[in-house]
UniProtKB/TrEMBL annotation:
Gene Ontology MF annotations: 1-deoxy-D-xylulose-5-phosphate reductoisomerase activity
1-deoxy-D-xylulose 5-phosphate reductoisomerase N-terminal domain span: 11-138
Name this polypeptide is given: 1-deoxy-D-xylulose 5-phosphate reductoisomerase
SUPFAM superfamilies in UniProt: 1-deoxy-D-xylulose-5-phosphate reductoisomerase, C-terminal domain, Glyceraldehyde-3-phosphate dehydrogenase-like, C-terminal domain, NAD(P)-binding Rossmann-fold domains
Gene: dxr
Domain DXP reductoisomerase C-terminal: start-end pairs: 267-384
Cofactor(s) listed: Mg(2+); Mn(2+)
Pfam family, one: DXP_reductoisom
Entries under NCBIfam families matching the protein: Dxr
Length: 396
């Protein structure tokens, strides 16, 4: 069990300007702001105005933009504030290395891996939104957390739900975990309909308001694919113990089934602040001003089996889980490149899964992950091959 840290808790938010980052700072405000948290570092990328505003408001010691070209703009924006400024990979590393008890890992994509690893290795408690750390670098990331000795608390709503439902004294009696999926905006579409959808349609999630990447990932269900791999690592379960069920209302955030047939679920309105507040308050719970479920108004909760023919991402996750090793890094790297090609309108919506599958099949004999450099190499190679496949598809 975690040692209670002193109040105020020292917190760094990697990716403070994003959807999870801004929700995190709203939770910080709700939990007492500067009386409850000492903000060590905030990091962003392009949105300098918001980053500077956050840094001033929360009295951060350090503000970092990942974009070196924006260093001067950030410096200007924070002129006279006494807040230190840094940029680029080294800036992110500096932010992760500051002595914060808690680090919210909320950068999107593989860009979050290096700073989150750094924070884990030095023993910070990690509130993990950046699931790509576990998808790409699973065992190595868990090793880093183990070496550092901090806690790893999931922020992804499904994994927060499972974490909350797990009876730690009965791990031997855990039979299955059931990840719920909304099914995204195209849940009821045929493959023919999906073939022609626009980015605008793909990013419009029916229940959750999220960043662009994860919104599109919900539409393809690659987000759920990542979450299956994330669950394997977080909860130490075998692939066949991980089930996915489509639950369009997103009220049940996920469930845990035990050997006696009991299923324990965690419910809430679709608002990431609950999972964020839980992670930042762990092992306590703090009062949050989020909407409550009104059961008298909940007309129904629906469930359906996911259709892997229309959503091949789920099948690809099973393949990656079976192959193990660096296949997670390949899946993740290829998907990020395929997503970028879809955003750039070089391939269609269904093309994303085709690219990922083609790259995974090219790299079946990629070895196990011995060190982080192997993960980085697999990621780079997967992206390179994904761009080749995209090039061939775009030319056809
Ligand atoms: P977002 O796009 O809204 O925000 C991403 C953050 O990362 C921003 O602060 C941005 O400045 C920063 N960033 C972007 N590119 C960067 C780079 N190259 N280097 C360093 N920083 C960079 O994303 P989000 O929706 O907040 O998602 C963040 C993470 O949380 C993702 O891993 C996502 O899968 C996960 N997650 C998000 C939600 C959600 O509700 N948004 C839910 C569950 C999990
Ligand atoms: Mg999720």
């Amino acid at each position: 069990m975690i040692m209670r840290t002193e109040v105020p808790r020292r917190l760094t938010v990697l990716g403070s300007t994003g959807s999870i980052g801004t929700n995190t700072l709203d939770v910080v405000r709700q939990l007492g702001g500067r009386d409850a948290f000492e903000i060590m570092a905030l990091t962003g990328n392009g949105n300098i105005e918001l980053l500077a505003e956050q840094a001033r408001k929360f009295g951060a010691r350090l503000a970092v933009t990942a974009d070196e070209n924006r260093y001067a703009a950030l410096k200007d924006a924070l002129c006279g504030s006494g807040i230190a400024v840094a940029a680029g990979m080294s800036g992110l590393d500096e932010a992760a290395g500051l002595d914060a008890d808690w680090v919210m890992a909320a950068i999107v994509g593989t860009a979050g891996l290096a700073p989150t690893l750094r924070a884990a290795r030095r023993g910070a408690n990690i509130a993990l939104a950046n699931k790509e750390c576990l998808v790409s670098a699973g065992e190595l990331f868990l090793d880093a957390v183990g070496t550092g000795g901090g806690q790893l608390i999931p922020v992804d709503s499904e994994h927060s739900a499972i974490f909350q439902c797990l009876d730690r004294n009965q791990r031997h009696a855990l039979e299955r975990i059931i990840l719920t999926a909304s099914g995204g905006p195209f849940r009821a579409y045929t493959r023919e309909q999906m073939a022609g959808v626009t980015l605008q349609a793909a990013r419009s999630h029916p229940n959750w308001s999220m960043g662009l990447k994860i919104s599109v990932g919900s539409a393809t269900m690659f987000n759920k694919a990542f979450e299956m791999i994330e669950a394997k690592h977080l909860f130490g379960v075998r692939p066949e113990q991980i089930e996915v069920v489509v639950h369009p209302q997103s009220v049940i955030h996920s469930m845990v089934g035990y050997v006696d047939g009991s299923v324990i679920a965690q419910l809430g309105v679709p608002d990431m602040r609950t999972a964020i507040g839980y992670a930042l308050s762990y092992p306590d719970r703090s009062a949050l001003d989020v909407e409550r479920i009104d059961f008298s108004k909940l007309a129904r909760l629906d469930f359906e089996a996911p259709d892997e023919a229309r959503f091949p991402a789920l099948r690809l996750a099973r393949t990656a889980l079976e192959r193990g090793g660096l296949q997670g890094a390949v899946l993740n790297g290829a998907e990020e490149a395929a997503f970028a090609a879809f955003v750039a309108e070089r391939i269609g919506f269904l093309g994303m899964a085709e690219v990922v599958e083609a790259v995974m099949d090219q790299l079946t004999d990629i070895g196990p992950a011995g060190e982080i450099a192997d993960v980085v190499q697999a990621d780079v190679e997967a992206r390179r091959r994904a761009r080749e496949v995209v090039g061939r598809m775009a030319a056809a």
